[in-house]
Task: structure prediction
Amino acid sequence: MNARQHASKIGRQTSRALAIAALTLGLATTALAPSSALAASLTAPVQDASVQGIFGNKQPADLTVGIAHSNPFTAGQRDLVPVVIENHGASTDRDITVKIMVSFGYEDITVRGAFGQDWECKRGEVGKYSGITTFTCETDGLDADSHKSILVNMTANDRDFGDGWIVAMVDPENKVKELDETNNIGKQNLGPHGVFEQQFLNPEQFMNDD
Result:
């Protein structure tokens, strides 16, 4: 074998060795890929698919409203009726809107935020047919497990206060994402005749009363 043939043989052997090395490396990479994917899946954070599917990664608020006045009015009595808005879910920085409706039979009605809380309240027109007085109040957000209150001050007249009532609706247009959208209405009798106990009054029928 002369020098040229010997060099050619070495070149072929070298090329074959490089090809085998490349094939071996490719197989090793392919074999390791599933293990890497598995490791990544094991280290990824586990999320609640039911909550994430509806609200993304952010937990929703859960707003409720209640009326903290249990004793019925008497004729001519003037008193404060607290409307309490609570958040049983996560904090929200969305504006919180509360619509308050007071039935006929009550006069000189004023509304303000309790304890210096930042509420902006506007009085609507008295219902043409129902005689209901409406207020709309707004505040900036509500922290988790906290509450804010609105004080409604009113006087019972001497004629038809007995069937009186107050209704409050928080987030009436469903602008705030909530865990439960069915617990946003609070209602309370003001007079001694128990209108709500008769179960014929639906507060939502007065939402668009003109």
